[in-house]
Amino acid sequence: MIAIKNLATILTYVIALCGMIPIFPWLTMFPRMLLILGLISGLWQDIKGNWQLKPWFQNILITPIFLYYALQYSRTNPIQPVISVLTIMLTVRLSGEKTVRHSKQIYALSIFCLASSSLYDLSPVFLLYLGLLLFMVAIALILLTFQSQDAGMLVTKLDLKRILIFGIMIPVISVPLILFFFPIMPRTQLPLWNFLNPLPSGTSGYSEIVEPGSKSNVSASHSLVFRAEMPRQEDSKLYWRGTVFNFTDGIKWTRTLQIPPENIYSNKSTVNQLIFPEPSAVRTLFSLDRPVTISLQRIKLSPDGVFELSRVGGRRINYSAESNNGGNVTQLNNINRRFYLQLPEQFPTRLKELSSRLIRFGNSDRKRVEYLENFYRLSHLRYSTNNLPIGDRVLDRFLFEIKQGNCEYFASSFALILRSAGIPCRLVGGFFGGEYNKLGGYYLVSEDKAHVWVEAFIEGEGWIRIDPSSFAENSGEVWSKKGSKNLVFRLTLAIDSFNHIWNRSVISYDLEQQISFASQLGSSFRGIQPLKRIWNVIPYIVGCLLITSIYFISKRMSLFNSREQRILNRFLKLIKLKFNISTVESGCGLFEVTSVANCSKVSNFVGIYAAAIYHDRRLTDKEYEKLMKILKDMQS
After folding, report:
1. Are strands 247-248 and 462-466 parallel, antiparallel or unpaired?
2. Residue 201 — very low, low, confident or very high, per pLDDT cuts 50/70/90?
3. Which of 147, 173, 392, 437 is surrounded by the most beta carbons within 10 Å?
């Protein structure tokens, strides 16, 4: 025999943990400590069976805490006070007696805490916790129904099995309804609670400014920036364009918004991508260099091929891009050469001398570029992110003395020399490379792939991409594929594929995709023959029949029988087991069973039971306890 109340209490703690664990990493220190203490206090009191913390005393203690967090609430800090109050309310209920009412409050607070965690991270793990919580809440509510009728109720293992089956069926039956309504329910273009979400900070690798010499060491972060669904490309073509830097003061490169118009020609050799960026405060939209079109609402397109969101996002989006990935684009009209030949007032002497040599030895822009490329190749320059030159004359010292730097040093010095030699150019910031996930068919681009290169204008050719970092003598070592493709690596990619499917199918499913889904569904139905239409409807008919069957089977189960009926069923089972008397087969009534069994315990049970039922009233608690004791004695 198993006590209903004990089972309900255990499930209450498990449900509370499902709500607490996902939100715990996002709490401040005080709510964390309070939550742990409340959990320990509640467990200790439940084990002892003595609850010292009365509800009125708990309410007095937490009132000042509620007032404190209420004063902390503001437009800039809307989430933290709310989740702190929710967890404190959950703590209060956990530390007290688990009555039916308080247990239901714990279930509700646990669901709210789990929902609050989605404001910070809505990963597939959230779905796991949600599924566990819903299954356990369904079972716990059934147990509480019995507990409300009789707090001391005991059930057999068979009855418990039936309770578990029925509790599991409730959420299982709802799954087809969820799958049916998810693609068709109306959606807003923006999440309703998106204004509560704090915008993530920008990626540490990608920057809106290029400033060589600002740091002597640059640390790399491997956080994901975006995924790009597309066919696999040559590694040398994986340049992901972000922004363009067109103005320099000699060291720092920035972007001015007064950009001259351009009219480029795109050939037919384009690559289509579907980009899934991670939530970020960065407005730049990344795609293969150079993008021709990006399909997304409310974006700004600059003449130099830079696409940006019209406002800061911070939510999950996806967009399709079409790019000319040849490395150069043809310009159909003349460019504003003066704009792309601006030079700083202070120009390093040795860089100026090098540009003079380019002018003397190169009789065309193409020849001058080739001369400078060879100079970089033969200068024994090394690519590094450590021990970088800082202070004054960083580009001069990088190229002629230290001969060591990262992509910012290579690209900045190269572009300055080209401009000084009369060749229009600019810097392009973005990413280079990426890890291809064969299982999902997409590239993973992380922050450590952030890169800067040069785009120069050559008469007759247009804008061409030049990566001065590739001229470093150790470039092959730097950009070669590192790391073994062992089991852990493959498992990591498999897990990431699951995350990508979750983000694409659930998180990023918006109104635009909903309309596209409806359009494709309508097109498919228009092209189907009547017989095929009937065949496609069969699975839905089978599903409805299955749900109906489960419903009628559950109706036949004696889960919600009264306690009078349940105790009678147990008595009849014992009679058949002990005395081999079957009331169903023999048609005997209770008094006939008494005479056949010839047992005082059986007589006492029938006498108490009949005195209540045959007088059309329910058993009292004392009568029920006596009958339970008789059954226990009969089992021994």
Report:
1. unpaired
2. very low
3. 147
Check if the beta carbon of residue 633 is closer than 8 Å to that of residue 159.
Answer: no
The string of pLDDT tens digits covering residues 555-585 is 544 445 677 888 888 888 888 888 887 765 5
Contact 114, 130 (CB under 8 A): yes
For 592-601, how does the pLDDT look when each residue is reduced to its tens digit (9 = 90+)? 888 888 888 8
Of 618, 554, 589, the closest CA to residue 173 belongs to 554
Q: Rounded to whole angstroms, how far apart are CA atoms 259 and 239?
A: 22
Q: Are 473 and 379 in contact (CB under 8 A)?
A: no
Strand partners, 155: 2
Q: What are phi and psi of 76, to 5 degrees?
A: -85, -20
Instruction: Give the Å distances, CA to CA, from 205 to 66, 159, 248, 496.
Output: 41, 60, 20, 21
Q: Cα separation of 424 and 413, whole Å?
A: 14
Instruction: Kindly state the helix (H) or strand (E) to which residue 411 belongs, with its residue range.
Output: helix 407-420
Tokens of 234: 């040559």
Helices (H), 24-78: 29-48, 55-72
Nearest to 575 by CA among 592, 558, 595, 597: 597
Distances from the Cα of 428 to the Cαs of 5, 129, 337, 467, in angstroms? 67, 43, 17, 10
Stated pTM of the model: 0.60
Q: Which residues pair with 239 in a beta bridge?
A: 432
- Report the candidate in 101, 108, 106 with the shortest Cα–Cα distance to residue 144: 101
* DSSP helix/strand/coil, 455: strand
Length reported for the chain: 636
Map out the domains of the chain as residue ranges: 2-181, 224-480, 563-635
**Adjacent-strand bridge partners of 385:** none
Give Cβ neighbours of residue 392 (< 8 Å, ≥ 6 apart).
none
Q: How far apart are CA 496 and CA 440, in angstroms?
A: 9
